[in-house]
Amino acid sequence: MIIGVPKEIKPSEYRVGITPSTASRLIEENHTVLVQKNSGEGIGATDDDYVKVGVNVVDGPEEIFKNSNMIVKVKEPQESEWKMLKEEQILFTYLHLAADPKQAKGLMDAKCHAIAYETITDNKGALPLLAPMSEIAGRLAVFEGAYHLKKTCGGPGSLISGVPGVKPARVIILGGGMVGTNAAQMAIGVGADVTIFDKSIERLRYLNDIFGNSAKVLYSEPLELKSQLVDADLVIGAVLIPGASAPKLIEKSFLSKMKNNSVLVDVAIDQGGCFETSKPTTHQNPIYYEDGVLHYCVANMPGSVPKTASYALNNVTANYISKIASLGLEALEQDQNLAMGLNVSKGQITHSAVKEALLETVSCS
Predict the structure, then answer these.
(1) Fewer CB within a 10 Å sphere, N or C end of the chain?
(2) Could you tell me which residues come within 8 angstroms of residue 287 by beta carbon, excluding any fewer than 6 positions away?
(3) Cβ atoms of 131 and 316 closer than 8 Å
(4) Residues 176, 218: one domain?
(5) Active site residue 96
(6) What is the DSSP secondary-structure string of 146-206?
């Protein structure tokens, strides 16, 4: 199979879909790999690094899309890219279609087979290709939140850890999954006052076991949640429903009850965000205010650490890329967990949760 890797063009996106080491493996398996010039510069991989393992480095994306059977990316295709997709071509990347009806329509019109990293499951129902980016985003959420708590960065002027004699910042984490757990680890590590909310009793027990008295672990019940939010300095939104839009856990009307200049970091923004007032931002312009509350809603947080993120992503995607390259769409028939990644095929939305989320905005029939 011919596998194409275009350079990412989303603003401030420096990751690459296939690293030189993954490319080397695919070439050893007798596949052809095309990589757009300078695609690896964000992770310190030169064109020569790719050439040395047998990659064909090409100048522009047009050649990649024209000549490849499968396109491997990191972020969802931008409009100029989905217009280059061909019928029957396989696209393998993060899609997050639930919050992006325009992209969904573009992929449907292309009649390609779009497989989303974020909806592939494992035998336990977990999301193995989302996990490494969730780990990174959860950790970055605390770093970015702590940064923006500073007065010079728009926050209330609080040090997340406090100091002897002065209490630390109150950090509320909504969701105890992969993002929330990693956020909690970082927040606890710097000495913050941490509370985690989740609706799964089983997950709450797990979180209580691993964090003990270092964090308060509470069931996500509206009255209790609101009583905690009014005193929060930093709130991290970390709720995920695979393929579907994120639930809105903080309504716009509630912001006036929160501390002035308190900070909301919405890691769920790719799925529409879990705050009613969330809207996607970029690394260049990461924040805005609603009712005196600072919002940080960067849609590709791991893109700011592309070297770590690209290698972490390839650690989990390489086997799937290899399987699809060897078997084509038959790989989905042989692996039901991989089949859960198919979001769009032959002009139709094929994933039930994505279809439901898009029902009101895209004709999915």
Answers:
(1) C
(2) 148, 154, 281, 294, 295, 296
(3) yes
(4) yes
(5) yes
(6) HHHTSGGGTS-S--TT-BTTBPPPEEEEE--SHHHHHHHHHHHHTT-EEEEEES-HHHHHH
Round to whole Å and give the CA distance between 32 and 40: 17
- 362 band by pLDDT with thresholds 50, 70 and 90: low
| Number of neighbouring beta carbons within 10 Å of residue 282 | 15
Which one of 49, 233, 266, 270 is the catalytic residue? 270
Cα separation, 29 vs 63, whole angstroms: 22
Please report, for the domain that includes residue 182, its CATH number: 3.40.50.720
323/201 same-domain check: no
Owner of token pair 């939104």: 237
Residue 358 has a pLDDT of 84
Q: At CA 32, angle to CA 302 and CA 5, rounded to 5?
A: 25
Is residue 45 located within the same domain as residue 74?
yes
Range of the domain at 61: 2-120+306-358
- The angle subtended at Cα 321 by Cα 25 and Cα 113, nearest 5°, is 150
Residues 51 and 140 occupy one common structural domain: no
The answer to whether the beta carbons of residues 53 and 20 sit under 8 Å apart is yes
Which pTM was predicted? 0.90
Of residues 100 and 30, more confidence is placed in: 30
Q: What is the pLDDT of residues 118-175, one digit of tens each?
A: 999 999 889 999 999 999 999 999 999 999 999 999 999 999 999 999 999 999 999 9
Asked whether residue 153 falls in the same domain as residue 26, the answer is no
* 125 assigned to some structural domain: no
**CB 130 within 8 Å of CB 178:** yes
H or E element that contains 71: strand 70-72
| DSSP label of 17 | S
Same domain, 156 and 97: no
Q: Quote the crossing angle between the two packed helices 201-211 and 178-189, to the nearest 10°.
A: 30
Domain count, the chain: 2
Of 31, 49, 96, 113, the catalytic one is 96
DSSP, res 103: H
The partner residues of 296 in beta bridges, in order of sequence, read 265, 287
